[in-house]
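Design job #97: recover the sequence.
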C-alpha cells in the first residue's frame, strides 16, 4: 500500500503532538499508537517549512531504523527530498536535512553523535536506551541559529530506559537542573491509531491475549506494573469455570507416535541444567513430557555430574524411553555451550554422545512473549503449552520467577530460571501467533479427557538428579 504524503492526516493524538512546542515532547506510552509515523512526519514537515534546519531521527538498531523510518520515508518523500544512502540523510531543496541514525552500543553512539549539532532530534523508542545515552544524544541539540531547539521522545513502558522516561514524562520528578516547563507528554494508545485499527483489526486482540501486567502496559499504557510474579498466568492447580477446566499442569498420557519431539537444553555451569523434552500435537500445541534437571560442572553438594555424564544420560533416555526411542528429535540449546576456553566446548561433549543441538534464538523479550502467548487460554479454555505433572522442576520454578528490576518486561535472572530459559529456546524454535483462536481448533482427541480416565496413573521417566 502506498501512502500519499500529502493526503494522510494525523489522528487526534498525533495532531496534539504536532502542535506541542515544549523543548522535550514525550509521545506514546503504549504499542502501536502511531509514534514512528508521527515523528517522521513531524520532522519532514519542519524541514519543508523551515529552510536550513538540521533534524535527526535516532533508533537503537539499524533493522528497526530501516523498517520504521528509512523505508517509509523513501516512499513518502518521493519527489520531496533526495536521499543520500551512504550518509543516511534526506536533503530538502531549501537546505534542510533529516539525518537518520542508529547506535546499539555506547562506542558507536559516541561516534555517531560526537561533534554533531541538531535543531530538532527525535528518539524513537527512547525506553530502549539507558539514561546516559539520552544525555549524550541530548547534548547535540544545540547551535547558534535562532531556530528553537527541540527533542521528540517516543516510548513504551518497559525496556532499559523505563525508569528515566517514566521519571521525566510520567512522574514528572525533576532534578534542580531540569526545568519542568520544558517537558510535556502526550499519551497515545493503539486505539487512538485509526489507521492501525483499520489495517490490522487483530492488533488489539493480540495485546488483549497477554497476561494482565503486560496488557496494562502495552495496551493501556500503564507504567506501574512490572512487579512480582513473571508468569502470573501460570496455573498449576486446575480451576473449573462452568464445564471448563483451566490448567497448565496435567497427568501424563501416552504420546501418539505421530507427534513431533523436541529437546531444549539450558546448561548450568555451577547452577542446575535443564533438559526438557516436548511433544507437539497436530495443532502445534506443546506438552512438556520429560525433564532432566540437575547440576553439572562443580556442584558444591549433591551429585556432581560432568557434561559427559549429563549427555550420556540424555542419550540413554532417548535410546530407552518409549516416547523418544526411534524418533528424530530436534534439539536446541543456549549458544553459550558452543564457547570454548581452549578445552572441549560443552557442545562437543554432547555430540560425542550423539546428542545434537541447534543454537537457540536468544532474543529474550520476544522469547518471553512466545511463552506468554502459549500459556494464554484460548476461547475453549486451552493453552498452547501443557506440562506433565511429573516435570516437577518446571512446575516448581515457573511460579517463583519475578520481573527484573532493571529491564522491566524481562525476568529477574537471579531467580532459578534454567527451565524457563530452556522453555524459551523451545518456543523460539516454533513461534506461534498470539492467542490460538477457537475456530482453528479442530475436533481432535482431547488429552484433557485423561482427567476422567487415567485415574492418576503416571507413566514417565523422571531424571531429576538433584533436588532444589
Ligand atoms: N496518521 C496516520 N495515517 C496513516 N497511517 C498511519 C498514521 N499513523 C500511523 N499510521 C500507520 O499505523 C501503523 C502503526 O504506526 P506506527 O507509527 O508504526 O506505530 P508505533 O510506532 O507507535 O508502533 C503504521 O503502519 C503506520 O504507518
Ligand atoms: Mg514505532
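Job complete. Output follows.
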Amino acid at each position: 500500500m502506498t501512502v500519499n504524503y500529502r493526503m494522510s492526516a494525523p489522528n487526534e493524538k498525533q495532531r496534539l503532538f504536532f502542535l506541542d512546542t515544549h523543548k522535550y515532547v514525550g509521545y506514546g506510552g503504549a504499542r502501536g499508537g502511531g509514534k514512528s509515523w508521527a515523528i517522521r512526519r513531524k520532522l519532514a514537515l519542519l524541514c519543508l517549512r523551515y529552510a536550513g534546519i538540521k533534524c535527526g531521527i535516532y533508533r537503537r538498531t539499524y533493522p528497526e531504523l530501516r523498517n520504521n523510518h528509512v523505508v517509509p520515508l523513501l516512499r513518502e518523500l518521493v519527489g520531496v527530498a533526495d536521499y543520500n544512502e551512504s550518509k543516511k540523510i534526506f536533503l530538502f531543496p531549501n537546505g534542510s536535512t533529516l539525518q537518520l541514525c542508529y547506535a546499539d552500543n555506547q562506542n558507536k553512539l559516541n561516534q555517531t553523535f560526537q561533534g554533531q549539532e541538531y535543531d530538532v532530534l527525535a528518539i524513537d523508542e527512547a525506553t530502549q536506551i539507558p539514561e546516559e545515552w539520552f544525555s549524550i544524544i541530548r547534548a547535540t541539540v544545540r547551535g547558534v541559529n535562532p531556530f528553537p531547539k527541540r527533542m521528540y521522545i517516543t516510548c513504551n513502558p518497559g525496556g532499559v530506559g523505563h525508569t528515566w522516561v517514566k521519571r521525566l514524562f510520567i512522574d514528572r520528578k525533576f532534578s534542580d537542573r531540569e526545568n519542568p516547563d520544558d517537558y510535556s507528554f502526550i499519551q497515545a494508545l493503539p486505539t487512538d491509531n485509526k489507521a492501525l485499527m483499520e489495517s490490522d483489526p487483530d492488533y488489539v486482540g493480540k495485546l488483549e491475549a497477554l497476561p494482565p501486567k503486560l496488557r496494562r502496559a502495552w495496551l493501556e499504557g500503564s507504567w506501574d506494573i512490572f512487579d512480582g510474579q513473571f508468569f502470573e498466568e501460570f496455573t498449576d492447580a486446575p480451576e473449573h469455570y462452568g464445564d471448563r477446566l483451566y490448567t497448565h499442569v496435567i497427568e501424563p498420557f501416552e504420546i501418539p507416535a505421530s507427534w513431533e519431539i523436541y529437546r531444549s537444553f539450558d546448561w548450568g555451569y555451577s547452577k542446575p541444567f535443564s533438559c526438557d523434552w516436548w511433544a507437539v500435537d497436530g495443532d502445534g500445541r506443546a506438552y512438556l513430557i520429560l525433564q532432566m534437571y540437575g547440576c553439572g560442572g562443580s556442584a558444591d553438594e549433591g551429585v556432581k555430574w560432568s557434561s559427559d555424564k549429563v549427555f550420556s544420560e540424555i542419550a540413554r533416555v532417548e535410546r530407552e524411553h518409549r516416547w523418544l526411542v526411534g524418533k528424530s528429535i530436534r534439539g536446541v540449546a543456549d549458544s553459550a555451550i558452543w564457547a570454548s576456553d581452549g578445552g572441549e566446548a560443552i557442545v562437543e561433549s554432547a555430540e560425542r554422545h550423539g546428542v545434537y543441538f541447534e543454537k537457540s534464538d536468544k532474543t529474550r523479550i520476544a522469547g518471553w512473549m512466545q511463552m506468554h502467548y502459549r500459556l494464554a487460554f484460548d476461547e475453549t479454555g486451552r493453552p498452547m503449552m501443557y506440562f506433565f505433572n511429573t516435570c516437577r522442576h518446571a512446575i516448581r520454578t515457573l511460579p517463583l520467577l519475578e520481573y527484573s528490576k532493571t529491564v522491566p518486561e524481562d525476568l529477574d535472572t537471579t531467580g532459578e530460571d534454567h527451565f524457563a530459559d530452556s522453555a524459551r529456546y523451545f518456543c523460539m524454535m516454533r513461534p506461534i501467533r498470539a492467542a490460538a483462536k477457537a475456530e482453528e481448533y479442530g475436533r481432535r482427541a482431547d488429552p484433557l479427557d485423561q482427567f476422567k480416565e487415567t485415574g492418576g496413573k503416571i507413566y514417565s521417566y523422571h531424571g531429576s538428579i538433584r533436588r532444589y
